[in-house]
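Sample pair:
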Amino acid sequence: MLNKGEEALRIVIVPEISLQMIADASQNVGLLQRIAERFCFLAGILETVNESIARTLGEKNVLQEARKAICKEEAARYRQFGEALSHGFKANEESELKVYRNIAKCAIEASDEELRNGLHYNVIYDRVSKVNTRIRRSDLTAALQRLNRLQQDRQVSPLVLSYNDQTRELQLVDRELLFYRKYGAPVWPWSDEADENDDGQWNLPM
């Protein structure tokens, strides 16, 4: 895909930069297009280069700026996702156990490979029960089965995470999350830097 774009614009992106773009996209074609488009824009390529020799682009700082710009655009979406899972459906027992919050924390702290492959139920239970020993398997099962509806109710669209009841795996639907957590320097509601005010809203550093 990058090669076709380079030919159309008469540019050459140095291999080091193009390989980083591909790695950043995590097999998400749409994200790869966004990275390449923003990179070219910040490099001053707004149309086909009208030169006899294709222009070479290899500025690492431009790629870094492109990453920051994309993360800034996505910040509100992931903030909404974080707040949705931190509050859950607001049932008393659910608020006390903070099951959804612990599911989100478990997912965000998992490795890229784990998220790409899917986190099995047993792995999730092992990790959330270490944070809160009062969480029972029945609590976790009920929360995971309603995870999709929670995100839909909180207008998190498309979904970020989804639970497959048949494979018993928590799956990453939105691979841009990997990009955002790597380059966006996010502060999640469950982190030590975030606090909840009297209105139940999270005070997060901007």
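The chain has two domains: 2-58, 76-201.
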